[in-house]
């Protein structure tokens, strides 16, 4: 899998969570506390869009807007019920001011 450009880093304020498409897959790109993260934009409980849920930059979590399950920004791990499975965490890097995402898994 290759890295795909998703836009200039300046398009993603800190903090923010933005739905982007990477290779036709919905990915939530998160900028929080100086770091970028990319997770599948699909809650493992019942498919809720994580990009619509509240981001907690200090706790490094994003919550599903449907039933509130929280996911770890770095690992994608499901931290609270009702989700029990991790969502995929993808690789992100910034090069020449561009944010690049490589799908993992
Ligand atoms: S769909 Fe995400 S917590 Fe239920």
TrEMBL record:
> What is this protein's name?
3-phenylpropionate/cinnamic acid dioxygenase ferredoxin subunit
A GO molecular function held by the record: dioxygenase activity
Which InterPro entries does its entry note? Rieske_2Fe-2S, Rieske_2Fe-2S_sf
Sorted keywords for this record are:
2Fe-2S, Dioxygenase, Iron, Iron-sulfur, Metal-binding, Oxidoreductase
Q: Which Gene3D superfamilies match?
A: Rieske [2Fe-2S] iron-sulphur domain
Q: Which positions fall inside the Rieske domain?
A: 3-101
Tell me what organism the protein belongs to: Posidoniimonas polymericola
Give the domain of life.
Answer: Bacteria
């Amino acid at each position: 899998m290759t890295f795909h450009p998703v836009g200039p880093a300046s398009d993603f304020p800190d903090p923010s969570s933005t739905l982007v498409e990477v290779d036709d897959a919905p990915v939530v790109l998160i900028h929080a506390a100086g770091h970028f993260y990319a997770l599948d934009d699909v809650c493992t409980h019942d498919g809720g869009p994580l990009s619509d849920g509240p981001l907690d930059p200090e706790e490094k979590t994003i919550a599903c807007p449907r039933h509130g399950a929280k996911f770890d920004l770095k690992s994608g791990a499901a931290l609270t019920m009702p989700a029990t499975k991790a969502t995929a965490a993808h690789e992100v890097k910034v090069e020449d001011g561009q944010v690049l995402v490589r799908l993992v898994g």
